[in-house]
Amino acid sequence: MAASTAGWFKAKVKAVPSGDSLVLMGLPSNNKPGPLPEKTITLSSLIAPRLARRGGKDEQYAWESREFLRKLCIGKEVTFRVEYTVPSIGREFGSVYLGDKNIAMLVVSEGWARVREQGQQKGEASPHLAELLRLQEQAKDQFRGQWSNVPGAAEAAVRNLPPSAIGDPSNLDAMGLLNENKGRPLQGIVEQVRDGSTVRVYLLPDFQFVQVFVAGIQSPSMGRRVAAETVNETNLTNDDSNGDASAEPRAPLTSAQRLSASSAAAAATGADPFAAEAKYFTEVRCLNRDVRIVLEGVDKFSNLIGSVFYPDGETAKDLALELVENGLAKYVEWSANMMEEDARRRLKTAELQAKKSRLRMWTNYVPPATNSKAIRDQNFTGKVVEVVSGDCIIVADDSLPFGSPLAERRVNLSSIRCPKMGNPRRDEKPAEYARDARELLRSRLIGKQVNVQMEYSRTIGMADGAPAPAASADSRVMDFGSVFLLSPVKGEGDDASAAVTSTAGSQPGLNVAELVVGRGFGQVIKHRDFEERSNYYDALLAAEARAISGKKGIYSAKASSQFKHINDLTMVSNVSFISFTFILVCLLIFILIYVYHLVHFQSSAKKARDFLPSLQRSGRIPAVVEYVLSGHRFKLWIEKETCSIAFSFSGVRCPGRDEPYSDEAIALMRRKIMQRNVEIEVETVDRTGTFLGSLWEGKANVAVTLLEAGLAKLQTSFGTDRIPDAHLLEQAEQSAKRQKLKIWENYVEGEEVSNATATAENKQKEVLKVVVTEVLGGGKFYVQTVGDQRVSSIQQQLASLNIQEAPVIGAFNPKKGDFVLAQFSMDNSWNRAMVVNAPRGGVESKNDKFEVFYVDYGNQEEVTYSQLRPLDASVPATPGLAQLCSLAFLKVPSLDDEFGDEAAQFLSEQTLGSSLQFRAMVEERDTSGGKVKGQGTGTVLVVTLVAEKSDLSINAAMLQEGLARLEKRKRWEPKDRKSILDNLEAFQNEAKTARRGIWQYGDVESDDEDELPPLSAAKKTGGRR
């Protein structure tokens, strides 16, 4: 209680048991959370009519008297003073002021209590007794309250109480009450709070006294008492002295209190943590307050389950939601299932937030392990290139250059799951409505600008899509986000709410996931606690509820409208595959593969030839590009014929796989026509079953686009008479030649070899602009491609990581072959790395040594366990950016050979440096290294390396210094190779003549062996630079 002056205190009215008594509690303090001290004060010198007790009835005007005082004071701040006490009955009497008004005088002036004149000689009287008596006479004269002279008013002021209100709850028909009032708000007054989630209420106007368990939640238990409390059956009349020491103890004032006192427990149990705080929370908001009760159901013990709404200013608040949000109750599934979906969702969300904040009863909560991880600050805008399925799209990031390997990003829609598309190669057919879901997104998104908000990633098992540990080798990381269509146009059948471009400004456009779910083509994933989810999860659940109620899509009894039987002319039927699988046990594997492919081509070609006349007669045919196989070859879906075909441009060819500009041609076609509506005109079919012809997107011939960009050549050896727009194709190719674009960058007028006579000798070599990052022995080194956007992207991502202290031993156990983050010892920067050597028997100390290979730079070093971290899910899982190379046409001594150290030192001096850039001409690719396992393995680019401002290659410089020799020449060599070797041989001869390096003792070459002489016994083995 807050002290005032001269024995006066400030308090707040917590409850009003009767017309002449108040339960007061101290004012809340920030320094002392939880229940506050309480005091019950009876107004001095007043006697109010008594409410009914067990088996009895109200005194006249008892309810009206209590209600007047309750409505006047409940929840308000008052000032009080204790004036006298009666120890024999343990009661305190005093004066209470509401503002500057004496509450006792207000009660008497309205005629709701009588003034007791006895007790003055004992000092047990109000100091305002004379004024109270005057006000009583005034009320009598004006016939106020219980002094009314209206005929029958006194009899009508006695409530007709049902058995439940006078201590006999056995006659209450809970199920009947529920059926009569299901979902309808009932007015009530809370008479008692048993615990935070259980209240006892008078339901008005019939005064049914019921116990209501708050739906959807459960607060901590208050425990059980050893035995029932005894209740004195004292019959007090209006003549009993108020505060007379000789009077017998008074019985509880309300039937609610009597019911509480009569309930006994079988065994004593203590209260749960935060039980008292939860009960107090409910009391200060609901006790003796007008509330609305919505009955939700009845449990098997006939207990009423309902939602309780209490007043808070001009609004009403949900008690269950408030308790859960403050960490004073937990979500309970069995009773929540009686509630509406929106209410359940709000409770579940509130509990999750309380757990995250570790509020009160969740203080020691330990979240379960999850395979999802939040992604932050990775929002981007771009154009949709491909719709993989109803819940997965590929978006081209606007911030990355066209053709970059990282430009196209796969985005899985957060928190939804659509029917699977299946896999034709494994004879898996699309699930019902899978095609509908994909077609919806294709028609609405392809080529459109979208805003992507990346939200979380999950580690998924490769085999069956089940969650997998983050460090598992047979797992992959999937990124999830919300996608918004920036300029949406409402389509036929769209959900009305989903079509709104912004919800109170919280969404930047049409939420694509909400659109899919609202059409009934997907389901919302029921996430576990602490599992990352969509930031718009509530909107998705609401859309799902609308789809269910509207019986749309997968929730309807209708079958999918998409075609179920499709002739796929690009594949062999499964019957042939099964038959060859049976033969597998009898034939050698290479014979099987040969036969299988032979049958595949024959079967596909025969099917295609059967369809050819129909496609030729149809002229221009509408189609959809399902997939871009290469720059000039595609898989098309023709709805009119219900078939899928392989289609290629007639007379136009792009670079083949692994050739320069092949990937750029594919990227251009994906941007231009992937999953777009196009028109085709079929001319013929080749021997592999691929249809040849022309393709238009809108009014533009797509082959012209390729030729204009310098990404394709026109092949006219068979003539152009049958090719539509042939003159446009020729003009486009000539334009690219004049501008020397892409494949024509080295084109010289008059030196072009015709397509008919071109050979492999004239094949253009790939030239890369690189920087050298690490030098190994034997002429091998690592490079990074200059201008590769992946380098800066990964560096920025690594720099943004907030890397904390070393992980606890046992929680992170890197093994050989695992990808991790490692701290480079030279500059303490964190980089992607692969473990190539780990301690046997697991990690025992933070100083345990690990050997790691930095996959983006090519260097390798030994680090401690404290310098390792798990690879963050936000770091792109792209292959290593360091490319292993070797000098073409040379044999360079290894580090174990004589002059091996000198060769490595010279190569380092010539190549290493942050400002040195080189042109690397790829002579060939050596794939004999197999799968990358660490430093010095994997695919090797055999290159001629030339400094940016130099005419002398590093290859020639190594020969000139006598630190390498030419590889053994062959009898027959192509002209270009012979010319290169002749030029390099001149530098080797110069070193021989000057007796430099390996030639200091004469000619070391031998006709019988191609190995360098062993290291001299006198020379010690040197380490790397």
UniProtKB/TrEMBL annotation:
It holds the Pfam family TUDOR. Residues 7-149, 184-364, 378-557, 619-746 form the TNase-like domain. GO terms for molecular function: hydrolase activity; mRNA binding; nuclease activity. InterPro entries: Silence_cplx_Nase-comp_TudorSN, SNase_OB-fold_sf, Staphylococal_nuclease_OB-fold, Tudor, Tudor_AtTudor1-like. The chain crosses the membrane at residues 577-599. GO terms for cellular component: cytoplasmic stress granule; cytosol; endoplasmic reticulum; nuclear envelope; P-body; perinuclear region of cytoplasm; RNAi effector complex. Residues 813-878 form the Tudor domain. The keyword Transcription regulation does not apply. The keyword Membrane applies. Residues 1002-1025 are annotated as: Disordered. Keywords: Acetylation, Cytoplasm, Endoplasmic reticulum, Hydrolase, Membrane, Nuclease, Phosphoprotein, Repeat, Transmembrane, Transmembrane helix. It is found in: Cytoplasm, Perinuclear region; Cytoplasmic granule; Endoplasmic reticulum. GO terms for biological process: cellular response to heat; mRNA catabolic process; mRNA processing; positive regulation of gibberellin biosynthetic process; regulatory ncRNA-mediated gene silencing; response to salt stress. Cytoprotective ribonuclease (RNase) required for resistance to abiotic stresses, acting as a positive regulator of mRNA decapping during stress. This is Ribonuclease. It comes from Corchorus olitorius.
